[in-house]
Specification:
69% of the residues lie in helices and 0% in strands. By secondary structure, the protein is an all-alpha fold.
């Protein structure tokens, strides 16, 4: 029963496309018998009644749609097709007020195309906003009707900026494939095709389409998209594309950040820091550039510089954000380790205490039961080196209390493992390497027992 209304509606659509009005209207009314509130069935019924010269029934269906859904734009365009008056067209256009209005026009056009009503789709696209996907579709639908006009519109579509153009509809694949064949030198059709494939998780097809763009794009995101798809399979090509994006648009801070981040991922820490320093000079007010600069300082062992950047930063919180606080903690712990290697254990303890803070200006709230075991193990070692057994016992007690509250997260034999790491490896490792090694030892979860 739950499929009956949809099935009858689709059968009505099939009979519409076959030019059988009697059968089409029969099945569409059946669809409404099983779901009187089906907007899709009412829409198809209204269109069918208009096509089959039953204007009164069409108006009745359209009025019913607007009772259920007052913001239904398709119903208002059907009112215009039923009575093509400029005033009705103005009403239809004036009520499309969302931030991406062209998508509303495309959605309605897809409805007509799915019913084989390309003439109606063209009438809609003619009054749609000037936007690349709109014009590519218009050119595609005119390719056999008016070839010369189609080619003019295709060139117009190709000339429009790809900024904030994100095609995603599978129905548009043949449109951009045709455009690519019709204008072989047009990289934009390939780029849009690649975006659709990527959205459909067809990464290989997406990469091939973007690779076919070559070095022709003068639009940085085209290179960014390709680099993102290449980063695992071919890091050298990915680096080259991140560099091209940076060269094409050096006035966008995002291109500096992406290039520097990728250099960091590839272990090119000095180059990443050079980029971050220059980016921070050019874009001093960008929070993400400040974070980038702090992280590259940390990766290059310049912990004081990292701390200085974070000390002056004010980062607005956003959902899921915690990396800035993690960076703050890592910086403080690395400073503590640096001090421990020089025998300045009191200074190390101060940094470790500071690392337990959650400054509001770094945009992360304090959790209910934060995990301070890494800091407490280091404090236990530092107090031990200073001969202050009471301080070491307090740190050991905090570790034990956390383990009792979180038994699944407590690694067995971790104190012995930490002691061995401290004696055998600590001084030979960089502070960041030492922190990662210690974190692995401390935060290794206890295996589940069946």
């Amino acid at each position: 029963m739950k499929y009956r209304s949809s099935a009858n509606c689709q059968l009505g659509e099939v009979y519409m496309m076959e030019g059988k009005p009697g059968r089409a209207l029969e099945f569409l009314r059946r669809a409404l018998d099983y779901d009187v509130h089906s907007i899709k069935a009412q829409q198809v019924l209204a269109t069918a009644c208009r096509l089959f010269k039953q204007p009164d029934d069409a108006r009745k269906a359209l009025n019913r749609i607007l009772e259920i859904d007052p913001l239904n734009h398709l119903a208002r365009f059907e009112h215009y097709l039923l009575e093509p008056e400029p005033q009705k067209l103005d009403v239809f256009k004036s009520l499309i007020r969302n931030e991406i209005p062209h998508e509303t026009y495309l959605e309605i056009a897809m409805y007509y195309v799915s019913l084989g009503l390309e003439e109606d789709a063209l009438r809609l696209l003619e009054v749609a906003p000037e936007q690349p996907a709109i014009r590519y579709w218009q050119a595609y639908l005119l390719r056999d009707r008016l070839p010369q006009r189609s080619r003019e519109i295709l060139r117009k579509a190709s000339s429009l900026s790809p900024y904030l153009v994100f095609p995603f509809r599978g129905e548009s694949i043949p449109v951009f494939q045709w455009a690519d064949r019709s204008l072989p030198g047009d990289w934009k059709a390939k780029y849009y095709l690649g975006l659709i494939y990527w959205g459909l998780r067809r990464q290989e097809d997406a990469l091939k389409a973007l690779a076919d763009c070559g070095d022709r794009p003068d639009f940085a995101p085209a290179y960014i998209c390709r680099a993102w798809l290449e980063r695992d399979s071919d890091p050298k090509k990915a680096l080259a594309d991140f560099e091209r994006a940076h060269a094409v648009d050096p006035n966008d801070w995002r291109n500096w950040r992406r290039l520097a981040n990728f250099c960091s991922e590839q272990g090119m820490h000095e180059r990443a820091m050079t980029l971050a320093v220059e980016a921070s000079r050019r874009f001093p007010d960008e929070d993400l550039i400040r974070i980038l600069l702090a992280r590259t300082y940390l990766n290059n062992g310049r912990y004081r510089d990292c701390y200085t950047v974070l000390e002056k930063a004010t980062i607005l919180p956003f959902e899921g954000q915690r990396d800035v606080h993690d960076l703050f903690v890592q910086c403080q712990i690395c400073l503590a380790m640096e001090a421990m290697k020089k025998g300045r254990f009191g200074e190390a303890i101060r940094h470790l205490e500071d690392s337990k803070e959650y400054p509001e200006r770094l945009g992360t709230g304090k959790p209910q039961d934060p995990d301070y075991r890494v800091q407490d193990y280091l404090m236990m070692l530092a107090y031990g080196e200073m001969g202050e057994s009471a301080g070491a016992e307090e740190a050991r007690g905090r570790i034990a209390e956390y383990a009792s509250r979180n038994p699944r997260r407590a690694a067995e034999g971790s104190e012995a493992a930490v002691d061995q790491w401290y004696r055998m490896s600590f001084k030979s490792q960089s502070e960041l390497e030492a922190l990662r090694a210690l974190t692995r030892l401390v935060q290794a979860s206890r295996p589940r027992r069946n």
